[in-house]
Design goal:
Layout: H1 2-15, H2 30-42, H3 45-54, H4 62-74
Helix pairs in contact: 3-4
Amino acid sequence: MSDEKEIREVVRAEKQPERSGKYKPLPRNRQTERKIAQLFENGTEGELMQFLRANGLHDDSPRFAEIVKFFREHGGKRR
C-alpha cells in the first residue's frame, strides 16, 4: 500500500509545473493567444509590452525579454 502512495506522490509532483513564485504566468486561453497573434501580425512593440505588463509579466521577467526578442525577430512593427 505504501508503494502506491509513493507512486501517486511522484506522479502528482511530476504533473505540477515548477514555479519559482517570482513571476506570474500568462493566462492560457484562446482570447489571450488570439490577442498575442494579432499583436505579432499587426501590432507594435509598445502595444505588445503593454499587453504583457497588463497580464502580469514585468520588465525584469526573463519571459518578458524572451517574448519581446522573439517579436523583434519575427513580429510586427517597432515603435
